[in-house]
Amino acid sequence: PYCYGGYEEQVHISEIDAVVESGNEEMFCLPEPTISEVDQRIAEIVVSQIEDGACLQLGIGAMPNAIGKLIANSSLRNLGVHTEMLCDSFVDIFEAGCISNRNKTHDVGKFVYTFALGSKKLYDFLHHNPSCSSYPVDYTNRLDKIAANERAIAINNALEIDLFGQVSSESSGTRHISGTGGQLDYTYGCYHSRGGKALICLSSSVVDKDGSRRSRIRPFLEPGTITTLPRVMVNYVVTEYGMVNLKGKSTWERAKALVSIAHPDFREELTEQAKRMNIQM
């Protein structure tokens, strides 16, 4: 697609040494992920936290797609978009009449993003669309730019969280799964946005290849696990069993809150682990 910029997208002819003409390969289209019942339940909780006029950032995966479908069928209006990644969900939300970008503090009327990844429908939406502006990541992910929009909402996935509130979205132990991305930037930015919320979403448990189930809420992160978000930055955490707000809570209060949204099979064990780790009131 031919995508418009709007910030540092031009290069002066004096800076060009050579021009090489080339054809373009067909764009990679991301297969549509399957939305599970857990994704759907988490999405329902998340959408209940979004207000008219909110400015959205969505991550990647099935859960953001579920959120997009729910918003598209909701009564939400005048939503804005300021995101690192533009995904198919935003097209669905726009076509349903829920996005206007008119209530944003800056880049009013614009979908602001750094890169797009999704289906041909998304790429066709971007093609010669003046309402979409691709900006450098040092613009989209700047704290002051994110925080300037009121009611900024960041919705991102995590792999694990421990009872202290530390979040890993990159690895499980030394097994690397994903990159850092903009999760830290948007969590911090939304924390400073007036009326903003940063929501970290994860299923309460996962079934391993051997068929055993383990909790994604852990007593502590396994050695070697990369900490994506320090506990002092973590605001809202959502599983299919509910949502908790860790802001301003003591270590014991954080642990107690996280246990309340853990899979029921692991709550007693997690409580005992917290006591053994000397997490007390």
From TrEMBL:
The keyword Transferase appears for this protein: yes
Chain segments annotated as coiled-coil in the UniProt record: none
Pfam families from the UniProt entry: AcetylCoA_hyd_C
Keywords linked to the UniProt accession: Transferase
Domain spans labelled Acetyl-CoA hydrolase/transferase C-terminal: 118-274
GO biological process: acetate metabolic process
GO molecular function, one term: acetate CoA-transferase activity
Domain of life: Bacteria
Entry-linked PANTHER family: ACETYL-COA HYDROLASE, ACETYL-COA HYDROLASE-RELATED
Protein name: 4-hydroxybutyrate CoA-transferase
